[in-house]
C-alpha cells in the first residue's frame, strides 16, 4: 500500500517553533519511514507552506497512492483542501500533533481524525490504521514482519508491487466492514485501535465533524434501525446530501462508541451500517442509491 503524507504550513519549523515537542520535521519523517517500512507501506512525503502545492500534489499523486495522511496545520479551514480530498476520493486520515482548538473543515473529507498531545504518535497510529487493512474491505493488508530495528531507508523500498490487491480494492470496493470486529466493546474508533492518543472518539458524543450538518440528533437518543433507515431515506429523497448523511453516521458511530445506547441485539448491525455510511460520500466508497436501498432492506431484516 502506498500513502501520500502531506504536511501543511509551518511544519517545516516543527521542533523549532516555541512550545512544539517531539522533534523536528526530519525526525518525524524518519520515524514515519521506519514505521512504514516495518508495516510494508510506501510513503510519498511532501511538506509545503503553499495550499496550491498541496492541492497540486494531491492531484498529481492520486493515481499512485491508496490513501492520504494529512496534517493541514494552519490550513485546517481550507475548503479547497477539503474539496481536493473529496475529488481524489481516497481514504484520508487527518492528523494533528496536538488537539486542535478549532474545528477542521479538512476533516469533513477524512474518514478519521487522530489528534495527539505532542509527539509523533498520531502520525504513527494513522500508518497503523492504513496498514491494518481497514480501508481494503475483505482483504486485510498483509502485515510485513520486517524488523523495526532495520535502517530507516526510504520507505519506498518496502513497497509491495503496484499490482498488490490493496491497490485496486481501496479504490473500487465499497467499504463493507471497515473496523475489525472487537465484540463491540470499549472505545473503538473508526478503524483503529483505541489508544491514549486523543482522537475522534474523545469528542463529546453527538458532536458532528461536519459544519452545519442538518438533523444531528442529541447524544441521548437511542440508536435504532428505524432511525438509520429514516436518515437513509432522507438521503434518497434529497433532503440530506451525501456528506451530511456521512457526517451524521460518523457522529452516531462515535456516540455509540462513547456509550450511546443502541437497539437491543442490533448493535453490531447498526455499527456496520454506520461505518458504511460514514464513507458513503467519498468517490472510492460511495454507495449508490441501489446500495442504500439494499442497506435499508438489510436493516429491516436485521
Ligand atoms: O501548525 C499547526 C500544527 C497543528 O497542525 C498540529 O499538528 O498540532 C495544529 C494547527 O492548529 C497548527 O496551525
Automatic annotation (TrEMBL):
<dbReference type="GO" id="GO:0019631">
    <property type="term" value="P:quinate catabolic process"/>
</dbReference>
<protein>
    <recommendedName>
        <fullName>3-dehydroquinate dehydratase</fullName>
        <ecNumber>4.2.1.10</ecNumber>
    </recommendedName>
</protein>
<dbReference type="Pfam" id="PF01220">
    <property type="entry name" value="DHquinase_II"/>
</dbReference>
<feature type="compositionally biased region" description="Basic and acidic residues">
    <location>
        <begin position="140"/>
        <end position="152"/>
    </location>
</feature>
<dbReference type="GO" id="GO:0003855">
    <property type="term" value="F:3-dehydroquinate dehydratase activity"/>
</dbReference>
<feature type="compositionally biased region" description="Low complexity">
    <location>
        <begin position="158"/>
        <end position="182"/>
    </location>
</feature>
<comment type="similarity">
    <text>Belongs to the type-II 3-dehydroquinase family.</text>
</comment>
<comment type="subunit">
    <text>Homododecamer.</text>
</comment>
<comment type="pathway">
    <text>Metabolic intermediate biosynthesis; chorismate biosynthesis; chorismate from D-erythrose 4-phosphate and phosphoenolpyruvate: step 3/7.</text>
</comment>
<feature type="region of interest" description="Disordered">
    <location>
        <begin position="134"/>
        <end position="217"/>
    </location>
</feature>
<dbReference type="InterPro" id="IPR001874">
    <property type="entry name" value="DHquinase_II"/>
</dbReference>
<dbReference type="InterPro" id="IPR036441">
    <property type="entry name" value="DHquinase_II_sf"/>
</dbReference>
<dbReference type="GO" id="GO:0009423">
    <property type="term" value="P:chorismate biosynthetic process"/>
</dbReference>
<keyword id="KW-0456">Lyase</keyword>
Amino acid at each position: 500500500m502506498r500513502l501520500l503524507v502531506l504536511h501543511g504550513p509551518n511544519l517545516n519549523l516543527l521542533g523549532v517553533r516555541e512550545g512544539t515537542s517531539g522533534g523536528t520535521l526530519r525526525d518525524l519523517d524518519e520515524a514515519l519511514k521506519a514505521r512504514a517500512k516495518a508495516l510494508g507501506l510506501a510513503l510519498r512525503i511532501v511538506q509545503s507552506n503553499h495550499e496550491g502545492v498541496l492541492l497540486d500534489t494531491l492531484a498529481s499523486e492520486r493515481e499512485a497512492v491508496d490513501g492520504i495522511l494529512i496534517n493541514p496545520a494552519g490550513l485546517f479551514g481550507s475548503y479547497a483542501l477539503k474539496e481536493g480530498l473529496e475529488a481524489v476520493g481516497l481514504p484520508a486520515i487527518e492528523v494533528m500533533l496536538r488537539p486542535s482548538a478549532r474545528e477542521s473543515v479538512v476533516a469533513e473529507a477524512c474518514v478519521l481524525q487522530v489528534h495527539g498531545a505532542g509527539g509523533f504518535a498520531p502520525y504513527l497510529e494513522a500508518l497503523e490504521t492504513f496498514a491494518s487493512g481497514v480501508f481494503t474491505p475483505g482483504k486485510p493488508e498483509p502485515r510485513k514482519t520486517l524488523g523495526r530495528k532495520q535502517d530507516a531507508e526510504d520507505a519506498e523500498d518496502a513497497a509491495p508491487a503496484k499490482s498488490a490487491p490493496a491497490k485496486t480494492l481501496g479504490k473500487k470496493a465499497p467499504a463493507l466492514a471497515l473496523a475489525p470486529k472487537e465484540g463491540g466493546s470499549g472505545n473503538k474508533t473508526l478503524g483503529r485501535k483505541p489508544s491514549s492518543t486523543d482522537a475522534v472518539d474523545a469528542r463529546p458524543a453527538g458532536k458532528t465533524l461536519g459544519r452545519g450538518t442538518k438533523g444531528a440528533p442529541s447524544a441521548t437518543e437511542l440508536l435504532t434501525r428505524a432511525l438509520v433507515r429514516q436518515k437513509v431515506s432522507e438521503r434518497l429523497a434529497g433532503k440530506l446530501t451525501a456528506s451530511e448523511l456521512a457526517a451524521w453516521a460518523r457522529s452516531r458511530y462515535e456516540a455509540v462508541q462513547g456509550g450511546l445506547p443502541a437497539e437491543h441485539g442490533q448493535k453490531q448491525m447498526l455499527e456496520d451500517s454506520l461505518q458504511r455510511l460514514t464513507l458513503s460520500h467519498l468517490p472510492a466508497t460511495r454507495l449508490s442509491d441501489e446500495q442504500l436501498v439494499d442497506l435499508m432492506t438489510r436493516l429491516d431484516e436485521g
